[in-house]
Amino acid sequence: MYIIGIAGGTGSGKTTVVRKIMEALPDDKISLIPQDSYYNDTTNLTMEERRRINFDHPDAFDWELLTRQIEDLRNGKAIEQPTYSYIESNRQAETVHVEPCEVIILEGIMALWKKEIRDMMDLKIFVDADPDERLIRVIQRDTVERGRTTQMVIDRYLDVLKPMHEEFIEPTKRYADLIIPQGGNNTRAIDIMRTYIIHRLRPSLSL
């Protein structure tokens, strides 16, 4: 099994990088584990209390569950991955069954934050992008997918996303084996990364 961690700020282009890797490999050989699925269960909180949670702080994640499930996959055991609703700001009752396979991708803003999880990774990637580019992408995404107004997104960026990025996300760049500048727009870097991964995996995947 080959475990890849892909981190980077909100709106940096992580999704594009993940998609390019997954397009290069057979569907039955790769599974994606989104870190966003592992936000803490907030069933016991009111909606108002949920809205006050800082979802860009490490404390917002269920690290125990994420670590255990990555370990299970690494040991050849299937998992029931949680799902999360951004509208309800809570974990859903439904889960996603994930079988262990040749390639596991853990993708999220703090995918490289916890040492126990980093130590299980074979390749660590940090997707970088300029702050203004990330803000534009966050506005485009959150107004369409998460029901937020442009002003709400800008206020959240200034009050939460920017300081949390500088304190918790940007420092994890030093743990990366590969850094992709210019985010998902850097097609040349993404192609080099994909070629490297395919080369490393070719014997086991029979590509």
What would you note in describing this structure?
The protein is α/β, with parallel strands linked by helices and 207 residues long. The protein has a single domain, classed as Rossmann fold (3-Layer(aba) Sandwich). It has seven helices and seven strands, in the order E-H-E-H-H-E-E-E-H-E-H-H-E-H. It has helices spanning 14-23, 47-51, 63-74, 115-118, 131-145, 150-169, 187-205; strands at 2-8, 30-34, 79-85, 90-98, 103-107, 123-127, 178-180. The strands form two sheets. Strands 2-5-1-6-7 form a five-stranded parallel sheet, covered by helices on one side. A two-stranded antiparallel sheet has the order 3-4. Helix 5 crosses helix 6 (150-169). The model has no long low-confidence stretch (mean pLDDT 89).
Number of helices: 7
Low-confidence runs: none
**Could you give a short account of the major beta sheet?**
5 strands, parallel
Using only C-alpha atoms, the radius of gyration works out to 17 Å
CATH architecture designation: 3-Layer(aba) Sandwich
| Order of secondary-structure elements | EHEHHEEEHEHHEH
CATH class category name: Alpha Beta
Q: Can you list the strand order of the major beta sheet?
A: 2-5-1-6-7
Write down the domain tally.
Answer: 1
CATH homology superfamily:
P-loop containing nucleotide triphosphate hydrolases
Measured between the Cα atoms of the first and last residue, the distance is: 15 Å
Q: Estimate the strand proportion.
A: 15-25%
Average pLDDT = 89
Query: What's the number of extended β-strand segments?
Result: 7
The class by helix and strand makeup works out as: alpha/beta
Fraction in helix: 40-55%
For this structure, the CATH topology is Rossmann fold
